[in-house]
Amino acid sequence: MTNEKNYMHKSWWKLIAVVLLTYTVIAGFLGPVPHLPLLQETIRNLYFHVCMWFAMMILFTVSVVNSIRYLRTFNLKYDIYARQFAVVAIVFGILGYITGAIWASYTWADPNKPAANSFSTIARDPKLIGAAIALLVYFAYLILRDSVQDMDKKARISAVYNIFAYAILFPSIWILPRILPSLHPGNDGENPALDVKNDIDSGMRTVFYPAVIGWTLLGVWIATLKIRFSLLKEKKMSA
């Protein structure tokens, strides 16, 4: 009984993640949404595409914080934390990129120019290019890690690179696409998906914010499982 109580005490946030994501999926597909011009029912993708991007940014932030902690302490466990949180963040970034590209193929379509509606044409939008660059920079982070054999050297180089990758993340996703001409919402100065007049209403907020928390907790859950596995692997190798 004591072990069960301890497990429940440690896993309460996992239960919250399951509840929030269950709520997100059910309300996301079945709940009422405003019928805005052009968006129509595709606005439901807000609970997935945008919320996954929010989760991605939070996970990348946790990753870079652990890289900084490693550089301050040279404790290898922080290097493992940084890597695993970055890996999960990349997965969320890929999912967010795919759902965003699919969404764009419907909402950015021009009925007068069918040839301009292809995915290859839409993919040249500055917002999608910036997102692709950010993800490629983090893919390079993983490749760099695997190219160095010495663990301490790998951790130091990776930590420094992670800081620079995080610095590139913001201009490539949030700044440059707003400066350059783009079809993506937000070029008028408003925050994409948070513009009350054009994107979201009070009813959607009751799903949007729980979805952000739910996807983030899921990412943390996956990362912690990967961290535990990596620590056990390192312990077995050093034994």
Question: Can you characterise this structure?
Answer:
With 239 residues, this protein is mainly α. The chain has one domain. Helix content is 74%, strand content 0%. The chain has helices at residues 2-10, 12-30, 49-73, 76-107, 119-122, 126-147, 151-179, 202-238. Helix 2 (12-30) crosses helix 8. The radius of gyration is 20 Å and the shape is globular.
Descriptors:
single chain; 239 residues; mainly alpha; 8 helices; 74% helix
Quick recap of the structure?
This protein is mainly α. It contains 8 helices and no strands. The chain has one domain.
Order of SSEs: HHHHHHHH
Residue fraction in strands: under 5%
- Enumerate how many helices there are, as a single number: 8
Shape: globular
Q: Helix/strand/pairing class, anyone?
A: mainly alpha
How is the main sheet built? none
Radius of gyration: 20 Å
Low-confidence segments, ≥5 residues, pLDDT <50? Answer: 113-117
Total number of beta strands: 0
